[in-house]
Automatic annotation (TrEMBL):
SUPFAM superfamilies: HybD-like (SSF53163)
Protein name, as recorded: Sporulation protein YyaC
Species name: Desulfofarcimen acetoxidans (strain ATCC 49208 / DSM 771 / KCTC 5769 / VKM B-1644 / 5575) (Desulfotomaculum acetoxidans)
Domain of life: Bacteria
UniProt xrefs under Pfam families: DUF1256 (PF06866)
InterPro entries: Pept_HybD-like_dom_sf (IPR023430), YyaC (IPR009665)
Amino acid sequence: MLVKKPANKSSIENIKLHVEDPAAIEKFSWNLIERLHSYGVTNNTHVILLCIGTDRSTGDCLGPLIGTKLSSIDQKFFNIYGTLENPVHASNLDEIIEYICDNYPGAFIIAVDACLGRLENVGCVNIGDGSLQPGAGVNKKLPAVGHIHITGIVNVAGFMEYLVLQNTRLNIVMRMANLVVDGLKFAALNYQKAKIQGS
């Protein structure tokens, strides 16, 4: 595991939000803001957004798509690793983790990845405490990473997972990416404002 959980582990409830929920962006952002507060993240904390996935698979491109969209915005809150141009995936995850450990000691890691799940949960974005286990849905053994995680359920689990990811509709992935990016933008803006006002 890349990081140990801080002693003041979040007691914020894990949430699951569907892209059809008109209040999803607001719920996402305020849940993330409360979670960052509970972990003691400050303006001096390096916040790493580790967007895991590959552009070689429609379903698995959620992470790098989020990284790409957020990288095009003028923001300084998140240090982003994992884009469509420079994805973080099974072949280089260990190397990226080592780089982050060496260059951002004490950083707070938010791990982002696509996953498979039940049919009724497809299109849902989850935010929760604890590390993310990349590749678990397709039986890959990769290092767990993150203080907290954001996952998007892009398709149905249980049968021929590689093929399912390859045949996931881009539309659902785009909608989930937009939800997460808008939620992250809102959270970053309001978290920084709250910290400035409270200082």
